[in-house]
Write a structure and sequence with these properties.
The protein is an all-alpha fold. The chain is 76% helix and 0% strand. It has helices spanning 3-16, 19-39, 50-55, 58-74, 81-88, 92-126, 135-163, 166-187, 196-201, 214-238.
């Protein structure tokens, strides 16, 4: 079986399951709203970072990206849907690759659009405080933010295939991002730089200190994502539907 029709069928699932476009809309709305609030909140801090402030809405917004990746996969584990999918596509590797692609493409497109809109809205609130941002820094922030959101969606998708439960994935990742990275991460020193979320978020900072830079940080997040997807692919190939 050719890959194109398998990808088309997976895209139809993404488009027609209302919770999935809803998650992408929530990503756009939440990120933009929180970035707008950050842009209007003032700039009195001595370590003020205009790029991070403008794109800080991605911190709560990424929960929607994670939810998108988890829900896109968990729908296969309801009502025997996975058995039907694998009966239609016996090549399990093709099915998994199509599922990952169908998640990655809309997550990247919406992530890039979200970052661009959030930057524009926040810059309007920051006014002259954002005048020090160069075009290269803003392009890097928007591109990196879009890639980061896509990687987090795929990270959640890989874990959901491995755990066979969207609820389990969200129960692990959301507390991890909200608690571990902010509480334990700060106490862990440089180890925290290699957490999947902390590493990727370096790209939305204008200035950065530590072991990793913007693109090496995204590479660390990509490695976490790749590990989750490899584990998910193993699960699809070796475990019964």
């Amino acid at each position: 079986m050719a890959f194109a029709p398998v990808l088309h069928s997976e895209w139809l699932k993404i488009r027609t399951l209302r919770s999935l476009p809803g998650a992408l809309l929530a990503l756009l709305a939440a990120t933009t709203a929180f970035s707008a609030l950050a842009g209007a909140s003032g700039t009195s801090e001595p370590d003020f970072d205009p790029l991070f402030t403008a794109l800080s809405g991605v911190l709560p917004g990424q929960i929607a990206a994670i939810s998108f990746g988890a829900l896109a996969v968990s729908s296969e584990y309801h009502g025997g849907a996975l058995r039907l999918s694998l009966a239609a596509v016996p090549q399990r590797g093709w099915w998994f690759a199509a599922k990952v692609t169908a998640i990655a493409v809309p997550a990247l497109i919406v992530g890039l659009a979200t970052a661009f809109i959030a930057l524009l809205v926040a810059r309007a609130g920051l006014g002259s405080a954002a005048s020090g941002l160069t075009v290269a820094e803003q392009v890097r922030g928007v591109l990196g933010c879009g890639i980061y959101l896509m990687l987090m969606a795929l990270f959640a998708a890989g874990l959901t295939v491995l755990l066979r439960s969207g609820v389990a994935t969200l129960s692990i990742l959301i507390p991890f991002i909200l608690v571990v990275s902010f509480v334990i991460g700060d106490a862990a020193g440089t180890v925290a730089d290699f957490l999947p979320d902390k590493a990727g978020q370096i790209v939305i900072h204008q200035t950065y200190d530590g072991t990793l830079g913007p693109w090496s940080g995204l590479t660390v997040t990509a490695l976490w994502t790749a590990a989750a997807l490899v584990a998910g692919a193993w699960s699809v190939r070796r475990r019964d539907a």
